[in-house]
Design a protein that fits this description.
- This protein is α/β, with parallel strands linked by helices.
- The chain has two domains: 88 residues, no CATH class; 168 residues, no CATH class.
- The chain is 41% helix and 24% strand.
- The protein has nine helices and twelve strands.
- Strand 7 and strand 8 form a beta hairpin.
- The mean pLDDT is 94.
- The structure holds flavin mononucleotide (FMN).
- The site of flavin mononucleotide (FMN) has 23 residues, from helix 3, strand 7, strand 9, strand 11 and helix 7.
Length: 269
């Protein structure tokens, strides 16, 4: 290959950033080929149009031109790769996992989801406007039937048809028991705008409780619930009530990260 062949190869392969024999002054991110004192020189420029890396010297014009084209192809591949990485990063930034968690179990699920899906992660307290996100996954702890932070978060959503919405609750009640999940969903219906409730996909995860870590308000609430539940006749104790009685004043952890698989699958759809 000779210097006069370069233009054709550059045109055919749509190679960018070529500077042949100083036809123009140096620009940022160029590959340069020149001849000085009988030697051929090939090198790259950086973002300030200064020489970067090593200068390759050649006696033969053919070898210099081959090296020049090789460097231009490499540059083209790098630009394409950077574009793919940028697009992927932007795509992931458009998806968010928001959590509402008081003692950390809902956050544990949200952290794991964010890691596995590569989505952004924010607490409902700091998320702000959610309208710019494409996929919104809300992971919220259940407190007296309410999903922590969920109502506040979805209140500002303008057009829910533009988003994929997944809501996962985290509670002590066993989510494999349909009576429990029906109860939870009935409560959620009252906390969400109708269109959000209709559009959302729901999942129910099991959390845990450590009574020694509960704040005064929650300890008092649980004490009241426990006393009330204990007086119920046996046939009126739901699975949820029984679970609460059994775990009262204890430390239990039902967190099962493998139960996130179903949510990850739903994100792929
Ligand atoms: C005051 C109080 C009320 C609760 N209410 C419910 C409830 O209605 N349904 C339920 O399944 N779990 C309930 N729980 C259990 C929590 O949802 C569970 O501990 C959850 O894992 C807490 O999540 P967090 O650690 O992210 O705050 C309650 C816990 C407390 C302390």
């Amino acid at each position: 290959m000779l210097i006069q062949d370069l233009e054709n190869v550059i045109k055919e392969e749509n190679l960018k950033g070529a500077n042949i024999c100083n036809a123009t002054s140096l620009h940022p991110h160029e590959v340069v080929i020149t001849q000085e004192e009988g030697k051929w020189k090939v090198y790259n420029t950086d973002e300030r149009a200064s020489l970067i890396g090593v200068v390759c010297y050649f006696d033969s014009e053919d070898e210099a031109c081959e090296d020049f084209i090789k460097k231009l192809r490499l540059r083209k591949r790098q630009v394409e790769l950077e574009k793919v990485i940028w697009e992927e990063r932007t795509r992931k930034l458009q998806n968010i996992i928001i959590y509402g968690s008081q003692y950390g179990t809902a956050k544990k699920y949200a952290d794991e989801l964010a890691n596995r899906l590569g989505f952004g992660l924010k607490s409902y307290e700091s998320v702000g406007d959610i309208n710019s996100y494409k996929t919104i996954i809300y992971v919220g702890a259940l407190y007296a039937g309410g999903v922590l932070g969920m109502k506040k978060t979805f209140k500002s959503l303008k057009d829910c048809m533009r988003h994929k919405i997944i809501i996962a609750t985290v509670g002590l009640a066993d989510p494999t028991d349909k009576t429990n999940t029906d109860n939870i969903k009935r409560g959620m219906k009252k906390q969400l705008p109708v269109d959000v409730f209709d559009k959302a996909e729901f999942f129910h995860l099991r959390g845990g409780i450590d009574y020694s870590k509960l704040g005064f308000k929650h300890k008092t609430m649980m004490g009241m619930l426990y006393r009330k539940a204990s007086t119920l006749p046996e046939d009126r104790k739901t699975a949820e009530v029984k679970a609460m009685i059994e775990t009262y004043n204890k430390q239990v952890d039902f967190v099962d990260l493998s139960s996130l698989e179903a949510i990850i699958e739903a994100c792929k759809e």
